[in-house]
Amino acid sequence: MFNPTFVGRMTADPILRSANINGEATPVLNFRVAVDDGFRKDAEGKKIGTEFYDCAVFRGAAETIAKYGGKGRVIAVAGTVHTREWYDSKTGEKHFSLTVPNVEKYEFFGANPAAVKEAAAEEAAADVGAEMETPWDN
After folding, report:
1. Please, what are the domains in the chain?
2. Mean pLDDT taken over the chain
3. DSSP string, 6-43
4. pTM (two decimals)
5. Residues 75 and 67 sit within 8 Å (Cβ to Cβ)
């Protein structure tokens, strides 16, 4: 069994949904993490390669990641990795994907990019309002 821990960025805002598991509604969250492969370099010495992992979490962890995660958010994920392969029905080309069907542990790093943008927008709006001069200020 291969149980890695990897750190990457969430590729999109997560969407929380509910699934019927054993007769009860269970929160489920699927998200994708892009992990930079810092070891491979091209002829010019620039880093190349990014691995994408499709991840799934359930219950409380799903709700927490949905609340605090977002596109661009750095997250560490630990769990069992599975490979999946399939053939494109139109071209016959073989494809692979890496999945973590049940994230066992996770941890966020840094600020949530969405929260940072929101705070910056609020600050800019406050600055604009402070700079405006009204007729009754004189």
Report:
1. 5-132 (2.40.50.140)
2. 83
3. EEEEESS--EEEEEEETTEEEEEEEEEEEEE-TT-B-T
4. 0.71
5. no
